[in-house]
Amino acid sequence: MSKPIDLLQGTLDLLILKTLAVGGEHGYGISVRIRQMSREALEVQQGSLYPALQRLESAGWIQSEWGNSENNRKAKFYSLTAAGRKQLTVETENWQRMAQAIGLILRTQEA
Questions:
Q1: Mean of the per-residue pLDDT values for the chain?
Q2: Which pairs from 76-79 meet CB under 8 Å and 24+ separation?
């Protein structure tokens, strides 16, 4: 298995929003879901995940509530807000434009 890819600056917000669009989850569950959805290519460290969750919650794109995890531990569960769904659309469109532009550059023939 290859080494997980380091995330580009700014992509973590998009990945969290997309993950929560599938359904609410606690922090560790979000990181597991990202790893699973990327077929083990992406791994989000807790030191990056939790500040991003706080930032997204402060922006009003996600909300949280306390509950019990599947192993009966107290955990903060996050879900997408209506504003978060709109932001997910914006972030997705921005990412697609950037990926297309990078693809054009990579396909350019060398001199």
A1: 91
A2: 76/26, 76/27, 77/24, 77/25, 77/26, 78/20, 78/24, 78/25, 78/26, 78/27, 78/30, 78/53, 79/20, 79/23, 79/24
CB under 8 Å to 60, separation ≥6 — which residues?
Answer: 81, 83, 84
> Pick the residue with more confidence: 27 or 69?
27
Q: Which CATH number fits domain 11-107: 3.40.50.261, 1.20.140.150, 3.10.129.10, 1.10.10.10?
A: 1.10.10.10
pLDDT of 110 over the 80 cut: no
Average pLDDT score over residue span 9-13: 82
Phi-psi bin for 60: left (phi > 0), alpha (psi -120 to 50), beta? left
- In this prediction, residue 72 carries a pLDDT of 87
